[in-house]
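INPUT
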Amino acid sequence: MLLAGFPLFELLAAAAAQGWVNAARSLVGAATAAPVVNTLWTGAMVTAVAVAGGTAAAIATERSAAPARRWLRLALLLPLVIPSFVAALSWAQAYGPAGLVDDLLGVAVPGVYGPFGVVAVLVVEALPLAYLAVASGLASRAEPDLERAARASGASARQVLVTVTLPLLRPALAGAAALVFVTTVNAFGAPAILGLPARFSTVTTRIYSDLAFAASPAAFARAVTLSAALVVLTLAVVAPADARGLGRGAVRTAVPAGGGSTGTSARWPGVAAWAYVVVVTAVPLLALVLMALTRAVGVVPTPANWTLAHFAEALDGDTVAALGRSVVLAGAAATVVVLLGGLLTVLRHRRLGRGLGTVAILSFAVPGTTLAVAMLLAYGPWLRDTVALILLAYVAKFWALGHRTVAGAADGLPADLSRAARVSGANALTAIRTVVVPLLRPAFAAAWLAVFLFGLHELTMSSLLYGPGSKTLAVVILNLAQLGDPTVTSALAVLLTALLLAVATPLLLVVRAKR
Amino acid sequence: MWRRLSTVMLAGLLAACGTEAAQDQPSPVETTAPSASAATVRLYTSVTEDTVEAVVDGYQDAFPGTKVEVFRAPTGELTARIAAEQREGGVRADVLWLTDPLSMQQYDADGLLAPVPPTAEAVVPPEYRSDTFVGTRILNMVIVAGEDVDPAPQSWSDLADPRFADAVAIPDPSFAGSAFGALGYFAQDDDFGLDYYRQLAENGAVQVSAPDDVVTGVAEGRYAVGMTLDNSARTAMENGSPIELIAPEPGAIAIYSPIAVLTSAADPDAATSFTDFVLTEEAQEAIAKTGWEPIRDDVAWPHDLPQVAPDWAAISDQQEQLLEEYRAIFGG
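OUTPUT
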């Protein structure tokens, strides 16, 4: 944790080195006021919508008779698999002017380029995070028994939801909201692709632009200061949420009894969830596939104009070696994060754990490019060009994803269970092994998967940190994308998504089966 | 677990190292051989990958035993990495090969760059080099128009014409160095000035991120015309996109892609031999083959255009001010 936290201090030191007066000036300057306001506004909107949507989706899959429930769960998590720039690109291709829907129906969704599009894509990206947190909350902490009791006592399904299920989910909701907010304010792909054309810039797009001009000390200073401002902003939002949410662990005496659907038997929530999946994921991906298949941009995407040449081009070069390295890196980062998160949890150091949880989210709040700069400042002399440096950056960046999920689930575990084990003669280790770990297994799995997926399609950090022999998938992608042919970029995006899907699907199904 | 992990990493590492020799003919080069036969050159670059690969392969073939270690990243990432390395003990590159001269001006001022060798001065026109860095290829900012746009725009001023209201795309100078070069050219030229951008904004011009996005938007019919790079437009046209490339009056805005040796280079001879090689006919032909205009006049290039160019030394000094004024016009 210290390893991950140290670069943040380096970053702040770099900001301080410019003099606080200059730093403050670069923040309140007219040029940065609009991006800051846009970022705050976007963060608030996305958090509200994504948490509400994620909760609704979780209740639809866990507490209603959704058709093809298992596949629906998978489909809802699909956006996790899709890299941010791909999501933005595919939305533009599907719903933008001259996009797929425009071509077929003559309707372009107004505002795809602009605040609406940015918020929409960010919601789509963030909703699975909220869904995961809430669904695993429903699995390991909400109590079917209590819901059944309420139903048996004559409460309607809605009353049960409002008076029993949601209040029990409060810690999970708070955790999800914090995570979504932070993910949103440091998102780059959607604002860059959909926001800038409409003159809508955010703090992250400003940081990126300042780093592009970082040869000038003033621009570098501004990039660092803006990143530090994101950290402070995150702290201001997350610390109170943490204090409120995780502080109130419910008093629990029993393990949730095994699942059966206890909610409504209505099918419409599931159908609505399926419709959502089609609109936000399936249609954009279809548009992307068409783009990748079509000979050239601006040509009608009919079979006569189809070609596989772009796919061949995308697979050229060291794609496969880089892919292998990325899989190993993402897997290692996920394992480290889950092990550390698990260790802290079973040690039951609640206060320490909560403090660390807050620190962890700070390094998550720093945009990838700046965090990579901080990593170089902190460890460049020893670890430059190594895979270890990238691994460290991944752990620092994605620690929050894993820690939050595990800590959130652990918070709801009844302490009485391990006490009971100890009283019955089990030693501490046995109690942890036989009681705590099995109960947290879904949370561990979810945390591992989230870190793994984010690590695999992370684009900025490794492209800045790699060296000879540590080229990652991200480097290959950016190299190809810069060749300037969007059809090839689309082909690569399709391949990447298909690949992540192939890796993630069995994992997701296993996670589900293990419960 | 760890052993297995490191085995996998090692395997990946080996796979990445095994680069295949692509060029077949040994090349007639006018460069000096690097002093040691096992010399290594560390190259930091933002130049497109196929171009870098072609030139590096040619160099390694011409000097067997030498090795070029490439760190390639988009301008933003590259600049950020150099900024970080400057602040923790020095830039670790021997050679920098960038897309535009803007950052080079600053590195020159920081004293990072070694003087340009006389060999370079012999083949590169003075407007495309300074004392410490030298052009290797030219990027041309041009107009791209939809095939059905009739009459097509003939000059830069036409983009501000009401008949293209809400139908012009321009790249963002705070993202693309080439777009910043265009901004600099217009700002310096008395016939245009920043007023040109004000007129574009009033005419409803849309700012997108990169020059490639302009081409995509015009090809898809989202915009009628736009400002973009010749290479990007030509690639799309070769694939069959319904667009055309126009060299507008008074000329395409020429942006040269500079290379420089660092004073801190571990092996200055090897570094210099690489930069010299980039300017040989062989390397220049390889650059032309990957779609970029070579810097040397004596190397064949079928797409010659009338050109104008910004004064990089001057616009580099005004970088902050120019961008701020631009943002005041175009938001963002």
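end of record. The longest helix of chain A spans residues 30-63.
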